[in-house]
Specification:
Radius of gyration: 17 Å
Helix content: 25-40%
Largest sheet: 7 strands, mixed
Bound molecules: S-adenosylmethionine
Order of helices and strands: HHEEHEHEHEEHHEHEEHEHE
Strand content: 15-25%
Shape: globular
Structural class: alpha/beta
C-alpha cells in the first residue's frame, strides 16, 4: 500500500473524530428528496448544482462523508461510488444506506489516488470534501483522469473572499476586513485546529483546472435566501447576503 501524504493522515484523524457531529445532518439530508447545498442548505431549485441528465451516468463523490449527495445521485438513476478518507464517516454512510434501502460502493481511501481505471466516470462531485481537504495539485488531475471526455466536475467549497475575511479565532464570524493576503494562499492550517485545508484564488483554480484538461463552465456564487440558517459560526447571514461565502465550480473534461 502506498503511504498517505501527511495532510491526508492528519485529516483522517480529524474526520474520524468529527464524524459524530455529522450524523444528524447526514440523516436529515439522506431523508430529503430535493437536494440542498452548503452551510445554508440552499435548495437545488435555487442554485442549480446538479447536471440534468443523471440517469445512467457513472458518478463519483470525492470525499463523500455520510454520502447524502451520492444518495441523491443514485435516486436520480446514476451509478454512484463514494470515496472518503474517514472510516467513521463511512460507517454513518453505510448505516444510512441500510436505513434507506440504497446500495452503492463506498471506498475508504484518498481522493487524490482513486483505485478506478482512467475514464470510468461521467461526473465527479464534491461538497466541502476532497475540494477542501485534499491537495488540489493532486485531486484535480486525478478527477480529470477518472472522467471521460465531456465528463463533468462539480464542486462546492468556501468562497475565497470568505477565507480572506475569517478571523483566526475559532467561533468568530467573518467581518468586513481582509485579514490575510490573497497571494500565496494555498495550504491553510487554522490556529489550534489539527486539520489541513486548501484554499485557492480564482486565478489559481482556473489555471489548475485548465492545465488538468478541464474547460470552466460556471462559477456560481451561492447567495442564501433571506431567513436561511446555519449551524456554523464563522459567517453570519447578513455577511453571506452581501458577499459570497460559498462557490460552486463547474468544469467539463475536454
Ligand atoms: C465536510 S465533509 C464533506 C461531506 C459532506 N458533503 C458534508 O459537507 O458534510 C468532509 C469529508 O471529506 C473527507 N476527506 C478529507 N480529505 C479527503 C481525501 N483526501 N480523500 C477523500 N475524502 C477526504 C473527510 O473524511 C470528510 O468526510
Amino acid at each position: 500500500m502506498t503511504e498517505l501524504p501527511e495532510h491526508v493522515l492528519r485529516n483522517r484523524a480529524v474526520w474520524d473524530d468529527r464524524a459524530k457531529e455529522y450524523v444528524a445532518s447526514g440523516e436529515r439530508r439522506w431523508a430529503r428528496d430535493e437536494p440542498v447545498w452548503g452551510i445554508w442548505s440552499v435548495p437545488e431549485s435555487q442554485v442549480g448544482v446538479l447536471p440534468g441528465d443523471l440517469a445512467g451516468a457513472d458518478a463519483i463523490e470525492l470525499g463523500c462523508g455520510t454520502a447524502y449527495i451520492s444518495a441523491w445521485l443514485a435516486r436520480r438513476g446514476a451509478r454512484v461510488v463514494g470515496i472518503d478518507n474517514s472510516e467513521a464517516q463511512l460507517a454513518t454512510a453505510r448505516r444510512l444506506q441500510s436505513d434507506h434501502g440504497l446500495d452503492f460502493p463506498l471506498l475508504h481511501g484518498n481522493a487524490e489516488t482513486v483505485p478506478y481505471p482512467d475514464a470510468s466516470f461521467d461526473l465527479a462531485i464534491s461538497e466541502y470534501g476532497a475540494c477542501l481537504w485534499a491537495d488540489p495539485a493532486r485531486w484535480v488531475p486525478e478527477a480529470a483522469r477518472l472522467l471521460r471526455p465531456g465528463g463533468r466536475l462539480v464542486f462546492l467549497t468556501n468562497a475565497f473572499l470568505l477565507t480572506l475575511c475569517v478571523p483566526d479565532e475559532d467561533g468568530v464570524a467573518a467581518g468586513d476586513r481582509l485579514l490575510r493576503p490573497a497571494f500565496g494562499l494555498y495550504r491553510v492550517e487554522w490556529p489550534g485546529d489539527p486539520g489541513v485545508e486548501f484554499h485557492l484564488s480564482h486565478g489559481d483554480w482556473i489555471r489548475l483546472l485548465r492545465g488538468s484538461g478541464f474547460e470552466l463552465e460556471d462559477l456560481i456564487e451561492v447567495r442564501p435566501p433571506a431567513g436561511a440558517t446555519t449551524r456554523y459560526p464563522y459567517v453570519t447571514l447578513e455577511w453571506a447576503r452581501r458577499w459570497p461565502c460559498e462557490e460552486v465550480w463547474k468544469a467539463r473534461k475536454r
